[in-house]
Amino acid sequence: MNSETPPVAYEAVIGLEVHAELSTQSKMFCACPVVDSTRSAPNIAVCPVCCGMPGVLPVVNRQAVEYAIRVGLALECQINLSSLFARKNYFYPDLPKGYQISQYEYPLAENGRLVIPTPNGEKTIRIRRAHLEEDTGKLTHCEDPAAGQGYSLVDLNRAGVPLLEIVSEPDMRTLDEVRAYATSLRAILVALGVNTGDMEKGVIRFEANISVRPVGSNELFTRAEIKNLNSFRFMERALAYEIDRQVKLVQAGGRVEQETLGWNEAEGRTYSQRSKEEAHDYRYFPEPDLPPLVVEQSWVDEIAASLPELPRAMALRFHTRYGISSAAALVLVEDRAVAAYFEQAVLAAPDVAPSAIANWITGELFGWLNQNDAAFEQIKVSPPALVELLRSLSKGAVNQPTAKAILSEMLATGQSAPSIITARGLGQISDTQLIAGLVRQVLDSNPQEMASYRAGKETLANWFFGQVMKAARGQANPQVLRAELERQLKLPD
User: Fold this and answer.
1) Which of these, 21, 285, 326, 458, could form a disulfide with 203 (CB 3.0-4.6 Å)?
2) Residue 73: which residues within 8 A CB-CB, separation 6 or more?
3) pLDDT tens per residue across span 13-33
4) What is the phi/psi pair of residue 117, to 5°?
């Protein structure tokens, strides 16, 4: 009797390093202003300090330290009253000093956690540390077809911008968990006011450490690191590809190399950049031009007292107070502006169900914004104006399809629902005699379809419904129409 060994199932082991630019007015160690590197002319916000000129001295940005403490507290980290800056040495064209001032052995915050939602309930992801450092410059790689070669341009506007690096433990196993962690962390950073959350401008960048192992194993195997992922979509696609690559490699008897990978979005694959550096490769040593960073406990307590309501707590409050689903609550609190809009709408209309308001915001409003590539802050419909439309819907003044069309016009023009309804004659038709006449007209005009319906093709009832609604220009009360159509379809020939 032949028996085959069942195939080994593998799971991913994933940890994230998140680099978040802090929204300070000046850079981490000098007075240069922080400018939008995607819009500003190159190299307009540089000085001898962030250019790494000989003899210059860095000075720590107090606001950056405060912002870092805010994040550390929100992530339930231990705030170290004394921490050290170090020099992380490596040579790259966008690093003018030849080293980066960072924190390594003695970070500002460590040993925290972030609780994330998953399909199987909440899960705790441990935070190893959150430390301060400075950003690098920006390289633009160009091709010169005429010369048959390429070249690179260096913009140092971003060099020296305050960064907070948040390092998780390798506690994530699935792409769902990775996305939940990343979106939850982004929501916290935005809620704290320390980061804009604008992923397209690179103010939050992800680096993922990933390995695979047999399901049930507790061993940590060789990992690869995927660098510079600046969107949730890129991160998920890169991780999905790398999980598949590593599993296939191990199954074929190969070995995962410890290396740094890049992500080629156009080709949909990771590619090797260099062998993975260890700490000793960077030759860390204490920054000689900066004393230990010492903060007072009283200042930490003052910062803790000023923290706003955090997204997870807000989502729980929305769920318990307003009765909306946990899933809808989590979507609403991802953006503080959206959460505020929802709550203002609820308070403006106690007679409209909060769940309906939440559904229209996350459905119709979000859909319109996506189609028109607009930011939520740009919408022309105020919370009271939205609930005025929903009140018209609940009272039967308009039906659902008409309400959606009205909202689209409100978003495009800024007009109120009543003015659009009046100007375009969009009021819902609930007159039973008028609807009965429309039904009779449609049934009499389609004898072949009526014969098919009588012969047993009952799905034609939906077709008749659509034809009557079309004759009523979409304004017929669906409940009244459905009841009248059923009544007439049961009448004898």
Assistant:
1) 21
2) 79, 300, 303, 304, 307
3) 999 999 999 999 999 999 999
4) -80, 140
CA angle 188, 192, 197 (to 5 degrees): 60
Rounded Cα gap, residues 223 and 246, in angstroms: 10
Euclidean distance between CA atoms 86 and 78, whole angstroms: 20
Put simply, whether the predicted model's pTM sits higher than 0.85 gets the answer no
What band does 367 get if pLDDT is binned at 50, 70 and 90? very high
CB-based contact 385:416 (threshold 8 Å): yes
Cβ-based neighbours of 329, under 8 Å, separated by 6 or more = 314, 315, 316, 318, 319, 358
The domain ranges of the chain are 10-303, 309-424, 432-489
Query: How far does the chain reach from its first CA to its final CA, in angstroms?
Result: 70
Do residues 27 and 41 lie in contact, with contact meaning Cβ atoms separated by under 8 Å?
no
- Residue 325 CA to its chain's centroid (Å): 19
Mode of pairing for the β-strands spanning 224-229 and 259-264: parallel
The per-residue pLDDT for range 228-282, each reduced to its tens digit, is 898 999 999 999 999 999 999 999 999 999 999 999 999 999 998 877 666 667 7
Give residue 226's identity as a one-letter amino acid code. Answer: I
Helices 432-445/478-489 angle, 10° precision? 50
Instruction: Record the tokens describing residue 218, joined without a space.
Output: 């507790």
- CA dist 121 and 117 (Å) reads 6
Instruction: Tell me the CATH number for domain 432-489.
Output: 1.10.10.410
> How large is the average pLDDT for residues 421-440?
68
Per-residue confidence band for 177, with pLDDT thresholds at 50, 70 and 90 = very high
pLDDT of 279 reads 60
Quote the tokens at residue 459.
């799905």
